Amino acid sequence: MGLSALPSPSTSISSRRLTNRMTNRYSVNAMYSLAAEQDIDIEDDLARAQKRLRDLKSRISAQSKKNFVLERDVRYLDSRIALLIQNKIAAEEKKEVADALEDIVEDDGSHMDEKRMGMYSNLFFLLQSEPRHVASLCRLVSLAEIDTLLQSVMFTLFGNQYEQREEHLLLTMFQSVLSAQFETTSEFGSLLRANTPVSRMMTTYTRRGPGQSYLKGVLAERINSLIEHKDLNLEINPLKVYEQMVLQIEEDTGALPASLPRGVAPEAAANNADVQAIIVPRLTMLMEIANTFLSTIIDSMESVPYGIRWICKQIRSLTRRKYPDASDASICSLIGGFFFLRFINPAIVTPQAYMLVDGVPAKHPRRTLTLIAKMLQNLANKPSYAKEQYMMSLNPFVETNKVRMNQFLNNLCEVGDFYESLELDQYMALSKKDLSINITLNELYNTHGLLVQHAEVLSPSDKAHLRTLLDDLGPAPAQVPRKENRSMELPLYSRWETPIQELSTALMSDSVTQNDINYMEAKSIFVQLLRSIPSIAAKRPIDLPALAERAATSKDPVLVRRGIKVQNLLSELDIAGVIDKADDYKIMQDEVAAEMVHLGNTKEKVVLETRSLEAVYKTICDHNNYLRSQLEQYKAYLQNVRLVTTKEKGAGSGGVGVVTVNGKEKKQIKTTVLGPYRFTHSQFEKEGIIMDSNVPDNRRINIYFNLTSPAPGTFIIALHFKGREKPILEMDLKTDDLLEKQKDNQASLDLEYVQLNVGKILALFNKLFSKRR
User: What does the record list as coiled-coil region(s) (predicted)?
Assistant: First the structure.
């Protein structure tokens, strides 16, 4: 089902009609409700609560976009710095990498002339209100181009994640993209599985504010309660269990019996009786934990964001149409492929990346979370044990819960469509004067360039609106350097649609009478008056004539205007026989009272939603800080690289000395040695730098660490015991090595007695040393 077209410019406003799918009374009522919501004159508790909520949602949307950009930057710098570490990047490219860290500057758009700004305003209004163009573009671009386009689509064009019209337009675009994906995919098994622009779009959509809110509300408590048990080892891979068992025996006894050789084959490990005895109770516990996760997720169905459920619904609908013989289980595996593979499981496996936990979980709970995610994925999809035979031992979990899981996935799809309300929203958009998007110059130019590049496919007719706008704009400007990539507020308006000036006139049609209009307008004004004069809002029954008179004789000109208007409307409706003065206008009295009760409930919901979203906003800000700390590490690294390069060039004048580290002589460029800086075991624990410690509790008070930097990018950690002159252990580290560990998702640095958090120790090095060089 597509969207109805907006009124054409040739049609007069008075003769425009709303679609027959909507009842007349609903349409008129909804119009006035929407109009009342936008009334800025009312300043009651509800209006203030709604404003706070709107502001909070706006901040979440803006912050989500910043995080998306930062995540993309981190991915880019990961790959570039990996090359830098391996000395495969040219010297002139180092500046290019450093320039990628420049922040975007806010701007008012004054650098662009008014005529060109107007053309872009028209173009982006068209792209937003007719999502089919964006849907086609997303299918045409390459995988290398999709992230930049997704930034513009998900976080700019439809960036207001809690604004119903934008959300529904974005979902309409998803429907077009998914439909095309189903049309062009020849094999059922490959549907939605490959890493394509479409799958990247779907993943990005789940990372927006509502998705983050759901994950935090549903998974955070469950994951945090699990990771508290740092020593709970639930490894079930026989080979790993065997290796761990052998190490433990050797540590306990000082020797290994001949019956337990090192490096056995997986089959030998699986057949070992002791290994089997260790694994059996772990399987039971894993299934119990997985069941609690599954129950939590199933019980949370009503909290799943509407958009994610609607995408599930489209997957089911498109599959049934394309493959009418597909079994329910096969269809559910596709739905599960989206809901679990791209939404739920990434948050379970890496909860720190979703800010569901503080810091990286310890080794054992991290492995448990990975196993839980595998179990849920095997349950949602058809299990495949080709690579991990040991997972077959968990088949009872799959068999017991398969029916339950499929029922949940089907229930996810049971949501209503939004086409009628979207049509109403689109219609109302023509009366709005404040539609706008916040966009950077490079987003503007990049989208423009992609549209021009694919104009023949997107708009074959040279008379179509899109082609007209692109022809007027001409070629897209080149991308500007990042430090010049200013952010601007771009107003959106249509070149062809006539703005709606008067609701009453706009709603008139053969089937909507003037009496219908008058009744709903009177009701709307009475609700506004009660909200503006709270001292009489609680009195029942509501004396409508007295309320109108109170407003008409007040000193507030807005209230006076409304009071006189509603007095006239009451009189007209009484004469027309729609309401009766003799019974104190009881019909309207009851409806106004009911609306006030509804608004009271609305206020409670607004307050609750605000509390919930404040937690989401904090999470998103925390994630932003985490990403910024990563970028700071890259900045420090690049600074060190430049320092080392400079010193190496000048090293010929005898600036080279010899230093002994861990008993080995090394040539070193003459530079200032920084440190040592001393930290106690408890300080490192408190800061989360120590992930795990083998030091007995009663000895930790005597343990401390000395941190030294003999040269840029080089650090020494020395582990000391009070009273001993020499360190127990010393480790020589390079920034390169730590960054590479991060890139390979190795969270811990093993110092034999303690395991340190790689990210946090790197951040500490940067804090202590980078600004002192």
Answer: 39-66
In 38-131, which ranges are continuous DSSP H helix?
A: 45-85, 91-99, 114-129
Question: What confidence tier does 656 reach under pLDDT thresholds 50, 70, 90?
Answer: very low
Q: List the domain boundaries for the chain.
A: 21-30+39-106+502-643, 207-412, 650-772
* Tokens linked to 501: 């000036």
The span from the CA of 133 to the CA of 276, in Å, is 58
Is pLDDT above 60 for 502? no
**Tokens at residue 420, please?**
């009628």
Contact 517, 28 (CB under 8 A): yes
Please provide the DSSP assignment of 171-232 as one string: HHHHHHHHHHHHHH---GGGTTTS--HHHHHHHHHHTSHHHHHHHHHHHHHHHHHHHT-TT-
Tell me the pLDDT tens digit for each residue of 232-247.
Answer: 999 999 999 998 898 8
Q: Is 244 left (phi over 0), alpha (psi -120 to 50) or beta?
A: alpha
Is residue 486 pLDDT above 80, yes or no? Answer: yes
C-beta of residue 487 within 8 angstroms of C-beta of residue 444:
no
Dihedral sign, Cα of residue 443, residue 445, residue 450, residue 455: positive
Taking CA atoms, 5 is separated from 119, 201, 283, 422, 490, in Å, by: 22, 26, 57, 11, 24
Q: Indicate the range of 127-131, 309-313, 404-408, 499-503 predicted with least confidence.
A: 499-503
Q: Could you tell me the CA-to-CA distances from 304 to 269, 301, 493 in Å, in that order?
A: 43, 5, 33
761's CB contacts (< 8 A; 6+ apart) are: 689, 717, 738, 749
For tokens 């008993």, what's the residue? 663
What are the angstrom distances between the C-alpha of 713 and each of 147, 267, 517, 626, 723?
32, 45, 73, 21, 30
Q: What tens digit of pLDDT does each residue of 313-352 get?
A: 999 998 888 888 889 998 999 999 899 988 999 999 989 8
Residue 24's pLDDT band (boundaries 50, 70, 90)?
very low
CATH number, domain 207-412: 1.10.506.10
Distance of CA 603 to the CA centre of its chain: 26
The answer on pLDDT for 254 being more than 70 is yes
What is the DSSP pairing of strand 656-661 with strand 664-669?
Answer: antiparallel
Please list the alpha-helical segments (H only) found in 544-585. Answer: 544-552, 557-575
- The Cα–Cα gap between 279 and 264 comes to 17
pLDDT in tens, 48-100: 887 888 788 888 878 887 887 787 777 767 666 665 555 544 444 545 555 55
Residue 209: burial class (beta carbons within 10 Å; 0-12, 13-18, 19+): buried
The two structure tokens encoding residue 38? 């936008």
Q: Which residues contact 629 (CB under 8 A, 6 or more apart)?
A: 759, 763
Per-state percent for the chain, helix, strand, coil, to nearest 5: 65, 10, 30
Bond before 281 cis per omega within 30 degrees = no
Mind spelling out the 3-state secondary structure of 613-670? HHHHHHHHHHHHHHHHHHHHHHHHHHHHHHHHHHHHHCHHHCCEEEEEECCEEEEEEC
* 703-711 vs 436-440, strand pairing mode: unpaired
- Give me the residue label for tokens 């086409």: 419
Cα 192 to Cα 89: distance, rounded to the nearest angstrom: 35
b/e 428-464 (16+ beta carbons within 10 angstroms → b): bbbbeeebbbbbbbbbbbbbbbbbeebbeebbeeeee
Q: Are 656 and 667 in contact (CB under 8 A)?
A: yes
* pLDDT tier at 667, thresholds 50, 70, 90: very low
Determine the straight-line distance between the first and last CA of the chain, rounded to whole angstroms. Answer: 64
